[in-house]
Backbone:
């Protein structure tokens, strides 16, 4: 399955000096060593070729060797070209678990004349099952000077691992947030709703799985995390220490989200059926408000500030019972634990496990569910209207979905789920129906791109991984 994904903006992915050559060289050395070992095992008792073959045949063998070297050089050049990032490349990072092995897979979304092309760039093995991902460029800080593209990974272990997303041959994280002496394995269940023993809250670290992550877009040294230990933490990556801890939730914290423009405002949503607004300007570690909702919280996210007006301080909450609700953070207070939603909608038959707003098309919302469906909504005027629905049987239950934030590719949506497949969908393929709801959309040359084989094989096809339901 692919349990989490995140987009890397175009131009942020850059190759490190000489890294590609070293990577290919090391791969060749390993390959040659394996060939030598195989030949040694099979020919250990055989007579040498020079003792049997005539000089003419030895000459032919030499020519074959030259041809093999030439073909290998050609393959190396092709591999080098595939590994070379371009300024126009966007990247989708996926948290994949396959045959009990977890890894990060980096897919390049290449902008070509024939439309975007999806292929796997590289991957790295993780120490535990990935549950959440967050990306940022933190190269402005001295400690992270060489890390223009970083991805933070939350998993079943209590630590947060941060990797250099541009390093194709690095096996270890560049930093770990949390107690590094604890076991790197965990038996905790990320989605458990059963009653547990009270969690022990540590003053410095998480003590259970890290279910959610959010990187502050304005103050990039701050990374927020929500954990199965029922706490929300704010980390300073310049010191790799936790600087704030909120312990007001009674169950696992499934989702956290920083405000896009207000760097001190943080949303948190929990399996205890509450949504909280946290403000880092408040000295006490208590929320500004804590709203009760009808079910376990699956996701919280702010409405894009690019929509303007009152929307800038509105936020969406999606729930385990299939409901989604929109609230205004200015219409709540610490005195009132209940707030009337601006609107509430039964979005899916099962949990609304993923949601994403379009920053470039005002009113456009996409939701994904464990019921194996994807829905596109028009949320303008506080009246959500269903525009389009797809069955996602090829992807399975939806665990993650996100729009590309680059304006040039803002019509592209990434989604993943229980069947371990990444899909990119161009929403402009909807055609006139979409334009009627969102006039700013212009029809472009569009296709559905899909990785329909093993996750390390990028492919695009027109089979029915997503089927439309009108």
Residues:
């Amino acid at each position: 399955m692919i349990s989490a994904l995140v987009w890397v903006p175009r131009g942020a992915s850059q190759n490190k000096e000489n890294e590609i050559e070293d990577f290919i060289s090391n791969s060749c050395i390993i390959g040659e060593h394996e060939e030598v070992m195989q030949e040694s095992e099979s020919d250990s008792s055989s007579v040498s070729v020079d003792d049997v073959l005539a000089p003419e045949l030895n000459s032919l063998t030499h020519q074959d060797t030259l041809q093999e070297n030439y073909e290998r050089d050609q393959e190396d050049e092709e591999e080098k070209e595939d590994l070379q990032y371009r300024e126009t490349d966007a990247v989708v990072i996926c948290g994949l678990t396959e045959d009990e092995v977890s890894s990060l897979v980096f897919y390049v979304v290449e902008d070509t004349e024939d439309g975007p092309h999806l292929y796997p760039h590289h991957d790295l093995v993780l120490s535990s099952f990935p549950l959440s991902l967050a990306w940022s460029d933190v190269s402005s800080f001295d400690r992270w000077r060489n890390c223009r593209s970083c991805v933070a990974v939350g998993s079943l272990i209590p630590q947060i691992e941060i990797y250099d997303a541009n390093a194709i041959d690095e096996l270890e994280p560049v930093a770990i947030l949390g107690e590094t002496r604890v076991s790197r394995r965990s038996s905790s269940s990320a989605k458990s709703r059963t009653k547990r023993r009270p969690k022990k809250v540590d003053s410095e670290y998480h003590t259970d799985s890290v279910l959610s992550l959010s990187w502050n877009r304005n103050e990039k040294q701050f990374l927020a995390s929500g954990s199965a230990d029922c706490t929300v933490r704010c980390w300073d990556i310049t010191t790799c220490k936790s600087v704030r801890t909120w312990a007001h939730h009674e169950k696992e914290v499934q989702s956290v989200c920083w405000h896009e423009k207000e760097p001190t405002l943080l949303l948190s949503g929990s399996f205890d059926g509450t949504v909280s607004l946290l403000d880092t300007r408040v000295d006490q570690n208590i929320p500004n408000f804590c709203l009760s909702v009808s079910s376990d919280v699956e996701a919280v996210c702010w409405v894009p500030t690019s929509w303007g007006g009152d929307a800038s301080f509105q936020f969406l909450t999606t729930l385990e019972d299939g409901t989604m609700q929109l609230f205004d953070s200015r219409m709540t207070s610490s005195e009132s634990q209940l707030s009337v939603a601006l609107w509430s909608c039964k979005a899916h038959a099962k949990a609304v496990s993923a949601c994403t707003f379009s920053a470039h098309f005002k009113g456009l919302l996409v939701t994904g569910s464990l019921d194996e469906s994807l829905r596109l909504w028009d949320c303008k005027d506080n009246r959500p209207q269903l525009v389009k629905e797809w069955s996602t049987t090829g992807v399975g239950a939806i665990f993650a979905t996100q729009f590309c934030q680059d304006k040039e590719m803002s019509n592209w949506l990434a989604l993943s789920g229980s069947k371990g497949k990444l899909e990119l969908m161009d929403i402009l393929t909807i055609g006139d129906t979409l334009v009627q709801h969102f006039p700013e959309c212009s029809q472009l040359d569009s296709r559905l791109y899909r990785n329909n084989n093993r996750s390390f094989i990028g492919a695009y096809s027109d089979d029915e991984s997503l089927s439309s339901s009108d």
Q: What stands out?
A: The two ends are 28 Å apart (CA to CA).
